[in-house]
Amino acid sequence: MKKTTLLCLLLFCFLNTYTQIIASPEKFTYLIRDAIGDLNNDGRTDYATISMDTTDENRPLKLEIFFAEENKNLKRVFSSTETIEAMYPKRLNGEVNESNIPDLFIEEGKLILYFFINGNSLYDFKYKNGNFELINFSYVQWDGKNITETDFNLVTGKYSKISEILNTDEITLNIKKKEKIRPLPQLKNFKPFTNELF
After folding, report:
1. For tag attachment on the chain, is the N or C end more exposed, with fewer CB atoms within 10 Å?
2. Looking at residue 18, what is its pLDDT?
């Protein structure tokens, strides 16, 4: 009888714990990156994070942004699991993706995402009219022979792309043009390198 009672008790504890794990609405509990700074120009310290769901074999990543309220509580204003690709995306059948987890900064009121995808790229987002808008993109890539620098100010439309042979002054590509994109791309629909300009 004691063994049956003990077994039932252990089974109940296991099922209760298992149910709590399954029912937990938040699985992105492993903090990878975070940044603090004022994003909405109210003088308060806001907070941005990149976290991982370690219970999922694909290791998806979530970008979240929180605004500090007057009572010092944090209010989530942005959350996406699409902005940053999972570490082991389904499209690669369990292989690691081609990118490092991006760095995350808040500087001069801008949210900055620093990716390494076939080179180094910086995406600057500014909070305006209730959205985070992409205002600048820069990219540096070396292909073994040429170093290519791209800079795109989306506010002014000024776009430049210059390639030169490393350690020389020989320019192999020089593009300068105006590219107006309106409305400005928003973080909620953003994925890096899904547009030929950025």
Report:
1. N
2. 37
